[in-house]
Amino acid sequence: MNENLVWVDWVEKFADNIKTSMKSLKKKKEFLDGVIDKIVINAEMGKDRNGREVQVGHSFDVKFKLKIVNDKLIWNDEGDKSKGYNVKDGKNLYKTGFIHEVSARKGVSKLKKKA
After folding, report:
1. I want to staple 94 with a disulfide (CB 3.0 to 4.6 A). Which of 24, 52, 62, 109 is the partner?
2. Where are the domains of the chain?
3. What letter would DSSP give residue 108?
């Protein structure tokens, strides 16, 4: 059996239930453990205001257990979907590039006023 067809059938069957069935942290973790093999965190480098090379943030490489990144469902006949479909394999690696929202920022912190 084609592993990708199992993935597509799974998504089709459970897509409507994902939001309601994953309210608990335990269920979210189980789901992610089922689809993600590993996540690699990379340091992103850049220059500070003095021109020195420093770490400015992070990027992530997410390796999935299946080739689901940019995979594609191709119908055998767009007009008659009962004729089935094929799945074009995607990749199992997603690279985020620099993520601004999760990277620590250095800077001047606000000082508390003494009362």
Report:
1. 62
2. 3-98
3. P
